[in-house]
């Protein structure tokens, strides 16, 4: 446990997650690890949507991370069958974050990871917020740096694979710092 402004906050899967009595929220992170393909077997950092989407109630030891087709996921997906009961990897752009989340949710995804469309972005997290439509989404929605999304997609293309296998969420507090395998292209 870590002392927070209004009491104690628990560090389990979110780091750091402390919500004070007045609703002040410190930046949240969620971590996932790519298990396969091996050339990108790293722990990646993502941020959850600010005001829409669900939370992870379960830890998935091995689940498919399926790149959406088309990548922006603003309409019907040609590979929607493969996204059912898996996690979709979507690219930013073309429609709102909430619209993308709803599209993959309608295809039965358990969560969506939306990577920035700026492939050179290796440090700036975008705050995903509700659009003005009053719609909702129930599945978790996470934002991933553009460089990370690009490297995952590139690895899958190089290996001719339709998806990666990931573990999500990962509790990084239980991993010694020297074993925390983060992408070498991301600077902290």
UniProtKB/TrEMBL annotation:
<keyword id="KW-0732">Signal</keyword>
<protein>
    <recommendedName>
        <fullName>Protease-associated domain-containing protein 1</fullName>
    </recommendedName>
</protein>
<keyword id="KW-0325">Glycoprotein</keyword>
<feature type="domain" description="PA">
    <location>
        <begin position="65"/>
        <end position="149"/>
    </location>
</feature>
<dbReference type="GO" id="GO:0005576">
    <property type="term" value="C:extracellular region"/>
</dbReference>
<comment type="function">
    <text>Plays a role in the modulation of physical activity and adiposity.</text>
</comment>
<dbReference type="InterPro" id="IPR037323">
    <property type="entry name" value="PRADC1-like_PA"/>
</dbReference>
<dbReference type="InterPro" id="IPR003137">
    <property type="entry name" value="PA_domain"/>
</dbReference>
<dbReference type="Pfam" id="PF02225">
    <property type="entry name" value="PA"/>
</dbReference>
<keyword id="KW-0964">Secreted</keyword>
<feature type="signal peptide">
    <location>
        <begin position="1"/>
        <end position="20"/>
    </location>
</feature>
<dbReference type="InterPro" id="IPR046450">
    <property type="entry name" value="PA_dom_sf"/>
</dbReference>
